[in-house]
Amino acid sequence: MKGIGFCPGSDSGKYAGVYSRKPGLNPHKIELDNMQWTKLQQYDKLIYSRISNFSKLAANENQSLMEEAKLPKFSQIKWTSSKPKEEFKSFTNVIVTQDEFFNKPHQDLNYLNAWNYGIFSFLSKKDFHSLSTIFTPSGNGLHFPKLKMDIDFSKQPGIIESLWKTSTMGHHKKKPHPEIISHD
């Protein structure tokens, strides 16, 4: 598990990171870093747009929280406490997991944000486009114990989006079947 943001999460045995600029890079690496930083700004907009389409309430609650707590976007170069209202239209923490990731059932208690949003897809290693393949072994998915509900990624081709209440909805990523883990 890898994180982008000022407050990434982690689970025992997994790791998370904060994307930040490294000092002392040569000019070529600075140019590459600048290109990556520009992409982060696009991700801010994409995630806000997707969550707004999913739930205006979730997007508005998050924007209010960011304004009140003066939280930065993850594409900001440094933490700044004053910025235009438009700057708060983003989500400050993105966690990227790979196909072997799984964790135990848990609730995200004491989180400031009221909503969790997940976007899931199997990606082609060649061009990183979403695969529309349905895999024979099942079990790689998101589980909500309280609802006795599974979202099985291996049986849903394309891109899957999910939005749930952070503190009231226990959840976990189920361990994937060994046949659908990429080992390289």
UniProtKB/TrEMBL annotation:
<dbReference type="Pfam" id="PF20515">
    <property type="entry name" value="2OG-FeII_Oxy_6"/>
</dbReference>
<protein>
    <recommendedName>
        <fullName>Tet-like 2OG-Fe(II) oxygenase domain-containing protein</fullName>
    </recommendedName>
</protein>
<dbReference type="InterPro" id="IPR046798">
    <property type="entry name" value="2OG-FeII_Oxy_6"/>
</dbReference>
<feature type="domain" description="Tet-like 2OG-Fe(II) oxygenase">
    <location>
        <begin position="1"/>
        <end position="172"/>
    </location>
</feature>
